[in-house]
Amino acid sequence: RLECLTTYAITHDDRLPRKAMHIFDQSRHVSGANESRYPSRVTQVIPPFSLWWIGMVHDYSIWRNDPPFVMSLMPGVRAVIDFYLSHLNEDGLIEAPNGWNFMDWVPAWDWGLPPDADKGVSGLINWQFVYALSIAQALEESNEAFHGRHNLRFDLLALSGDAWEAFWDEKRGLLADDLAHTSFSEHTQCMALLSGQVDRIAPERRERLVHGLLNDPGLHRTTISFTHYLFETYRLLGRMDKIFERMLLWFDMEGLGFKTTLEMPEPSRSDCHGWGAHPIYHYFASILGIRPASTGFHTVSIEPQLGPLTHARGK
């Protein structure tokens, strides 16, 4: 998804993004989940990546004007949603789907798994699904053939309400990563804020959640790939100064001898990884603030947020 967004921002050529979306759609299992790499000799399913694939379809629908292609992928979007809904428990929460529920290479998370993401109920998995439901709803509302087929709005409201009740920690003023409220991360706060549901279900708590995200030193911090969603949240909050603080990771790469972006903070031996390129996207879409304002890029929004910069320009 991050490579596709970067591609949309810098070139008209979108053949590789379309090929990627199509191939991942073709990899779908009977369960509804996509494979995370395909074609491949070894089958690998990372359920959270299926939700990022929905994000890819949504992004393409607004950055490019190609309704037939988007429509061809909508059954796959629904299949992923149904796969996750099949893992709802009696409390209305998503239990860990089968597969490698990787989220981010956080040092404290074994194999990139947040607490209870392997077996149990993860706050981050639930809020990522709320986020994915919100963009799936936007997709269906912009595709009349699918609008009203199933009440995603109801699923979204019900799940976000249950997730809030389960993971909100009044003492910390944050959403927990686990039901026991022993772990808290930037990741979970970002997914909740980007989903747009906090304003609907707990508007009186939003300011505390934002304050905690910006100031709590005990949060697990995003690394390279998930920092995209942190940057999206900082943009939403108008805190571009925070983006530049976290860009030090990229500014330091040249001094470490890198010519390409790495997959994870050192020690890392995956030294050429595409998801580390998303600051290029944010230069155009967040700092210069140039983004599509409607489906098919029929209208444009230009809202620069320069942060500490005195000037910026791009083409």
Detailed description of the structure:
By secondary structure, this protein is mostly helical. The protein is 47% helix and 3% strand. The chain is built from 13 helices and four strands. The protein has helices at residues 2-10, 15-26, 47-63, 67-85, 123-141, 152-167, 186-195, 198-201, 206-215, 227-237, 240-246, 248-251, 278-287, and strands at 168-169, 174-175, 290-292, 300-302. The strands form two sheets. The protein has a two-stranded antiparallel sheet with strand order 1-2. β3 and β4 form a beta hairpin. It starts with a helix and ends in a 13-residue tail after the last strand. The model has no long low-confidence stretch (mean pLDDT 94).
SSE topology:
Blueprint: H1 2-10, H2 15-26, H3 47-63, H4 67-85, H5 123-141, H6 152-167, E1 168-169, E2 174-175, H7 186-195, H8 198-201, H9 206-215, H10 227-237, H11 240-246, H12 248-251, H13 278-287, E3 290-292, E4 300-302
Antiparallel strand pairs: 1-2, 3-4
Helix pairs in contact: 1-13, 2-3, 3-4, 3-5, 4-5, 5-6, 5-7, 7-9, 7-10, 10-11, 10-13
Q: How large, in whole angstroms, is the Cα Rg? A: 19 Å
- The helicity comes to 40-55%
Question: What structural class is derived from the secondary structure elements?
Answer: mainly alpha
Ranges with pLDDT <50 over ≥5 residues?
Answer: none
Binned strand content: under 5%
What are its keywords?
globular; mainly alpha; two-stranded antiparallel ribbon; 13 helices; 47% helix; single chain; 315 residues; 4 strands
